[in-house]
# Entry
Amino acid sequence: MPIPYRHPPKTSSHQCAAFLEVVWVQEKHTFYGALLLIDAKGQPLEFIHNTLTAPSGFLWPADQVRSIGIAELCHSLFKACSLEPLILLSTSNIGTPEYCKSVIAPAIPFAQIVRADVHKIFSINWINGQPTSGSTAYMLMEDLRSNGFISEPFNRLHNGLAEMYPEVIWPEE
# Structure
């Protein structure tokens, strides 16, 4: 006879959040990007990575190279994604909130996670609107927060990039 048990709620078990990171490696003149999709329990569902070698020379101002490079790399990661996340989270090194809203321009709720210190203290800055209370995206964000998966996935992104590109000497954060 089977043992009865309480089934966990399935509020966001089939939904996922995407974590985005882009790292500039000056020595290689290359942007490295990754997108990690996880469920509410922190289980990885998809990992996508790509690189973009930036143009150089006097015709390319550094701020323009950064702006165009990050946008192109992010959009290539979005296109390669096979799942449709409910929310997108990135670090603040992707760009200003204005840049992210107008140039990266995801159509889903998008926030930057700003780490205050090494003790996992962070703030969440919503860029294109926080999910409304009671929505599936809101419940997913609350599940991620309560399970400790707001800033931790960025460590996995960095580890994934280091594993995919072992020849790269990664800049200090």
